[in-house]
Amino acid sequence: MAHAYTPGLRVAARTRITKTRRLPLKGQVVVQKGAVVSAETVVARTELPGNVRAEKAASILGVHQQDLETYMLKKVGDPVQKGEVIAMAKSFFGLFKSVVKSPVDGSLEVVSSVTGQVILREPPIPVEVNAYIDGTVTEVIPEEGVVVEAVGAFVQGIFGVGGESAGVLEPVVQSPDQELSPDLLKPEHKDRIVIGGSRVHRAAVDRARELGIRGIVVAGIDDADLREILGYDLGVAITGHESLGLTVVVTEGFGRMTMAARTFDLLTRFAGKKASINGATQIRAGVMRPEVIVPTETAPSAVEEKDRTAG
């Protein structure tokens, strides 16, 4: 049975689009106010602390924890390599040796005379935030991120999976009630965002992943197909972090649907244009809807918003 939803989704042919791009913790903003950026442009970067690993060094060496520092070959703060000896104890006039080797590349962070453990930290994890849309940087948030603005088309979906991506829009169906079947997807659609019609099944999603298609926009999807694609029941979780290799945005609901004529016409009108897509969905407090954005003017300007509510 098909389930359609009409929760007041926005479909705008020309509107101002504003995106705030923030780092998860303070770092460095690498663009300036007024810069014209593409979706792929890195606008800020930082480093997350690496994972920690604990080794029971005193037990391995067979020494008292209060004496552990005496047997260390490395000092706190020293770099270490995986497999490198960081502590050693000798016994029976040096005939026998016990050693502690680093399990990771990184640095020595703690030598504890209380627990007898050494704590090693893996290298920091680099994090970069891109602009997500083609546009202009209108504000710099020091050490945190930027605000990017553009003017263009904006389509909200009802549900999606997969994170942010960008690619050229490519309609592959002739009408909004035509199903997106695997045979419609071709090698030349690699790196494209394909526009389907009424419904997409798992076979077509699998085919899209094989071809390197970046996104699918379609009216509906079956619950069973979604479960097979994800490998689990979604429940009420926040989506957008799935490792699918592509992003899927559903515009109407679950089951065999027909894409709203205005949505289909708008998306097909921009065939060949670069779009940004995000499947992140949150239904509870702080509602978040999947979206398709087609910037047409990278320099923000005063616009009369032309949109309507889907449904």
Outline the structure in words.
This protein has 311 residues and is mainly beta. It folds into 2 domains: 3-17 and 148-309, Glucose Oxidase, domain 1, CATH 3.50.30; 58-121, Beta Barrel (OB fold (Dihydrolipoamide Acetyltransferase, E2P)). It is built from 4 helices and 23 strands. It has helices at 57-61, 202-211, 223-230, 261-269, and strands spanning 3-4, 10-22, 28-29, 36-37, 42-48, 52-55, 79-80, 85-91, 96-101, 106-111, 118-121, 125-130, 135-141, 145-156, 159-161, 164-171, 192-195, 199-200, 215-221, 247-254, 274-278, 291-297, 306-309. The strands form 4 sheets. Strands 1, 2, 4, 13, 14, 15, 16, 17, 18, 19, 20, 21, 22 and 23 form a 14-stranded mixed β-sheet that branches. A 4-stranded antiparallel β-sheet has the order 6-11-10-7, with no helix packed on it. The protein is elongated and about 85 Å long. The model is unreliable at 306-311 (pLDDT under 50).
